[in-house]
Amino acid sequence: APRKARTAFSDHQLNQLERSFERQKYLSVQDRMDLAAALNLTDTQVKTWYQNRRTKWKRQTAVG
């Protein structure tokens, strides 16, 4: 199957995702569903954004 095109998040969506990430680095399934619904995104889009954001965060906080 062809890869799905990557999502271009709006500024509003990114701002809300970042604010959510600052509060909690890991979302429960329910939190993720609620956030996705609030931002008009899919559960998978939010899950993937969080996975990528945690990777970036871990790189930034890595010592050495």
The count of DSSP E runs of length 2 or more, i.e. the number of strands, is: 0
What would you call the shape? globular
Structural class: mainly alpha
pLDDT under 50 segments (min length 5)?
none
Could you give a quick summary of the protein structure above?
With 64 residues, the chain is mainly alpha-helical. 67% of the residues lie in helices and 0% in strands.
Spell out the key features of this protein:
single chain, 3 helices, globular, mainly alpha, 64 residues
Give your account of this protein's structure.
This protein is mostly helical and 64 residues long. It is built from three helices and no strands. The chain has helices at residues 11-23, 29-39, 43-61. Helix 2 packs across helix 3 (43-61). It is globular and about 40 Å long. The chain starts with 10 loop residues before the first helix and ends with a helix. The relative contact order is 0.15. The mean pLDDT is 94.
Structural topology:
Blueprint: H1 11-23, H2 29-39, H3 43-61
Helix pairs in contact: 2-3
